[in-house]
Design a protein that fits this description.
- By secondary structure, the chain is of the alpha+beta class.
- The chain has two domains: 33-143, Immunoglobulin-like, CATH 2.60.40; 160-290, Immunoglobulin-like (Sandwich).
- The chain is 23% helix and 39% strand.
- It has five helices and 17 strands.
- The chain has helices at 2-24, 48-51, 145-163, 244-249, 276-290, and strands at residues 33-34, 40-45, 55-62, 68-77, 86-92, 95-103, 120-128, 133-139, 164-168, 173-177, 180-191, 198-203, 209-213, 222-224, 230-239, 256-262, 268-272.
- The strands form four sheets. It has a five-stranded mixed beta sheet with strand order 1-8-7-4-5, with no helix packed on it. Strands 9, 10, 11, 13 and 15 form a five-stranded antiparallel beta sheet that branches. It has a four-stranded antiparallel beta sheet with strand order 14-12-16-17.
- The relative contact order is 0.12.
């Protein structure tokens, strides 16, 4: 028992000491979020090339004559995981629109539904003129159409992947079609859960390539019926653009959208990509088919 009393007494003394120290420590509250300065407003945009990198543009408008310096910016909403404030370090004088590019987090998706988009705001650490830096909250009109689309696409893809895995085969072979060389491979479907009828409604193009079924453009493109676990769909691929700029700027060359329906429900989209080793080979093929020098 003495040992127990000594332990308890020591614990109480330690707790009292910690409380005393905490009481002497200076308060460090989070900075208050203020209203936007007069004449400054924001909206959200997204360039096509930024989708693959999970970035968007905070489009800032300053109709005042006072310069505003944006130090850090972040998107805050319960629909996406909140990332730390992103440094932008940009001073804006009177401007009809200036885009500040920032990353945003993954969509927060329940396991069995596409949720409605939640209210969102852009929070910025900024300085107006020669004033001090402060944290400002720009509430976005709700529902924001861009965020609603991103939630629908990301959570829809999450639902699809719970039912079916869509991938490309690693083997691609050349074939002459209408006097031109195309590459033929497979789009592979593998059931993950359930036994519903799975229909591939459409396989889309990218900034770089055209992809279509090798056997023609029937609708649906492919069907995985109940009781079938796997299916290989032959597909053919060819370059859709041959200008050097497209090759230099192609950030989404191998992010192919696949539109599918599960059990007759509304179609949803997911993204499928060939394996990395196949991507290198297909890029070399596209350069050769376009008559461009190799990388």
């Amino acid at each position: 028992m003495p040992r127990v009393r000594t332990y308890v007494t020591g614990f109480v003394l330690l707790a009292m000491l910690a409380t005393a120290v905490a009481g002497c420590a200076p308060d460090r509250p989070e900075p208050a979020e203020e209203s936007p300065p007069p004449g400054v407003s924001v909206s959200l945009e997204q360039w096509r090339s930024d989708e693959a990198e999970h970035h968007l543009e905070v489009s800032v408008r300053n109709t005042s004559d006072t310069p505003v310096h944006f130090a850090r910016v972040q998107l805050v909403t319960e629909s996406f995981r909140t990332l730390p404030p992103h440094p932008v370090n940009t001073t804006l004088r009177r401007t009809p629109r200036t885009d500040l590019r920032i990353p945003y987090g993954e969509a927060i998706c329940p396991p069995d539904a596409i949720p409605p988009v939640r209210p969102a705001a852009v929070v910025a650490d900024l300085r107006v003129g020669d004033g001090p830096e402060r944290t400002v909250r720009f509430a976005l009109p709700h529902p924001d159409p861009l965020l609603a689309r991103l939630v629908r696409e990301e959570c829809g893809a999450h639902l699809l992947r719970r039912k079916v895995a869509v991938s490309f085969g690693a083997s691609w072979t050349p074939r002459r079609v209408d006097g031109k060389e195309v590459m033929v491979g497979t789009l592979d479907l593998a059931r993950s859960t359930g036994d519903e009828r799975i229909e591939i409604i459409e396989i889309g193009e990218t900034t770089h390539f055209t992809l279509r079924p090798a056997e023609g453009a029937a609708r649906p493109v492919a069907v995985l019926p109940p009781g079938t676990q796997r299916l290989e769909l032959p597909v053919e691929l060819r370059p859709s653009r041959c200008d050097p700029h497209a090759f230099a700027e192609a950030k989404k060359a191998f992010l192919f959208p696949v539109r599918a329906s599960i059990g007759g429900a509304d179609p949803l989209w997911l993204i499928a990509s060939p394996p990395k080793e196949a991507q290198t080979m297909l890029t070399d093929y596209a350069r050769r088919a376009c008559g461009l020098p190799g990388s």
